[in-house]
Amino acid sequence: AGAHGPGSAESRGRSDAHKSYGLDERGLGEVEKPLLREVLRWSEGHQSRAAQALGINRATLRKKLALRGLS
Question: Tens place of pLDDT for every residue, the chain, 71 residues?
Fold first, then answer.
């Protein structure tokens, strides 16, 4: 199978991509929470600017902040 074959992150969809790196939800949070904090610091609290820097929309950022206890 090639880069897009069965079992690849591409064939599973983006929501499962973190699993290919051995990250469970807790492990992902250990990486994501400090990243979200740093991007918000960089954007001086401007969520739209932070979301744009992360390549996600503002609603997704707000969900991630709530999930990680940063809202």
Answer: 445 545 544 444 556 655 666 667 778 878 899 999 999 999 999 999 999 999 999 999 999 999 999 98
Residue type, 68: R
Confirm whether pTM is higher than 0.70: no
Contact 51, 40 (CB under 8 A): no
Give per-residue burial for 8-31: e unless 16+ CB within 10 Å, then b.
ebeeeeeeeebeeeeeeeeeebee
Residue 70, by phi and psi: left (phi above 0), alpha (psi -120 to 50) or beta? alpha
